[in-house]
Amino acid sequence: MADSPKGPFTYGGVLVDIGDLYLNGNEDETHASNYLGNTHGEMLQIEDQWYIFYHRQTNRSSYARQACAEKLERRDDGGFQQAEITSCSTTMVLQMLIVLSSLWVLYVIQLKRQSIT
Predict the structure, then answer these.
(1) What are the Cα distances from residue 49, in Å, to 37, 62, 77, 85?
(2) What is the pLDDT of residue 106?
């Protein structure tokens, strides 16, 4: 957490965690239920709600990946609780982003037309 994008930063906790390797002593990736890997996460605020976007490994393989989005809930200190990883992710959020990106493109086109005339 920080007041500026340039920091200084304070560790605020885990936002998303997909793996169970090393949980309960499991050190063998071939016996993991969920594989570890970089989730390439990103946060986005839509109106008053924050979301975390990431990908997870699927099909018991480190190379098969699925894009996901989950709601983030605020803690009393202003930070975020760790997101619950669900089996279906937040499909509605992904659909909403497609609609919003389409609306943004239409808005930019309208602005360009207005600046031409």
Answers:
(1) 26, 31, 16, 17
(2) 82
Residue 96 backbone dihedrals phi, psi, to 5 degrees: -65, -40
Give helix then strand counts, H and E, for the chain. Answer: 1, 3
Rounded distance, CA 7 to CA 9, Å?
A: 5
- Tell me phi and psi for residue 100, to 5 degrees: -60, -40
What distance in Å separates the CA atoms of residue 39 and residue 19, rounded to the nearest whole number? 10
SS3 56: strand
Contact 51, 70 (CB under 8 A): yes
How many Cβ atoms are within 10 Å of 79's Cβ, its own excluded?
14
Task: Give the tens place of pLDDT for each residue, 23-67.
Answer: 667 777 777 666 666 777 788 888 888 988 888 777 767 777 777
Burial of 36 (0-12, 13-18, 19+ CB in 10 A): middle
What is the pTM (predicted TM-score) of this model?
0.61
